[in-house]
Amino acid sequence: MSRRTRRRFGRAGFYLLMALIVLYAVFPFYWAIVSSFKPGSEMFRIDFFPPPNLANYYAVFAEQPFGRNIVNSLIVASAVVVLSLALGLLAAFALGRIRFRGRSLLLFTILGVSMFPQVAVLSGMFELVRALGLYNRLPSLILSYLIFTLPFTVWVLTTFIRALPKELEEAAIVDGAKPLTIVTRVFLPLLGPALSTTGLLAFIAAWNEFLFALTFTLSGEQRTVPVAIALISGASAYELPWGNIMAASVMVTVPLIVLVLIFQRRIVSGLTAGAVKG
Question: Which burial class, exposed, middle or buried, applies to 75 when counting CB atoms under 10 A from its CB (0-12, 13-18, 19+)?
């Protein structure tokens, strides 16, 4: 077999593998969209291109305060992103630029906190939320979500700040800039890819979180979309409104896809920046 033939087979195998990966990743979402257009009587009939039927989408908003749930998720996820980036940036500056005893231990401790499963801290967080009077209120979700978004943000931003040239900071100090000015005026414009990557990942994590949202909210007006979808029920356990569930799932997934497509270049540059130093 010649080298050209082997190259063609290798290229064909590569494209086939990529096609299988794309099919594996995209087909479930495509099937959710298809199912969201089907009425209950046709839900389990195979039809790859059904005629658009928005009855399930209307039913989701008519049978529960789903619009309010979407707004709750937006408020909570946006607040988590803002707080994670603000606190994470300040902490990353201290950990990345200021030398003090125990800095590495503190950094690994911060990373280790994010490795604990949510169930392990659920009871303690519940007592804290109840003691602060935040039960069944959105601030309880913002506070609890920072547990798993803030450590990751601090770790990633610390890595980026360490990679920035020290000459920039030294020049700012010579000009009389204070640490807060250095962070906001010198480092912040250079951390766009890192902030976009960590902010989007924090938003996705807060948007999809289920356990804390289920535990710390009680009324339908305070629930977020994952809990609202999970609590969609039919007349019995054997008659779940799958069309409504699929329609709600599509509506809460599309915003994440749009965000990823918008910030795609910044995400790639943020994930690859600092990987090679030289």
Answer: middle
Structure letter (DSSP) for residue 252: H
Q: What is the pLDDT of residue 235?
A: 47
**Does residue 228 contact residue 99 with C-beta atoms inside 8 Å?**
no
Q: Where are the alpha helices (DSSP H) in 114-241?
A: 118-131, 138-163, 166-174, 179-181, 192-208, 211-216, 225-230
Question: What CA–CA distance (Å, rounded) separates 37 from 145?
Answer: 34
Tokens found for residue 68: 């309010």
Say what the pLDDT of residue 71 is.
94
Q: Are 32 and 250 in contact (CB under 8 A)?
A: yes
In this predicted structure, what is the pLDDT of residue 276? 43
Q: Which of 99, 127, 263 is nearest to 197 (CA)?
A: 263
Distance between CA atoms of residues 228 and 220, nearest Å: 8
What's the sign of the alpha-carbon dihedral 260, 61, 240, 43?
A: negative
Among residues 79, 66, 108, 83, which one has the least CA distance to residue 225?
Answer: 66
Which two structure tokens, joined as six digits, stand for 155?
């770790």
Residue 70 has a pLDDT of: 93
Structural domains in the chain, sorted by start: 65-231 (1.10.3720.10)
Q: Please say whether the beta carbons of 14 and 21 come within 8 A.
A: no
Average pLDDT of adjacent 10-residue blocks, the chain of 278 residues = 74 87 86 82 73 83 88 94 92 84 81 80 90 92 91 86 82 83 83 85 91 89 90 62 86 86 70 49
Tokens of 76: 């909570």
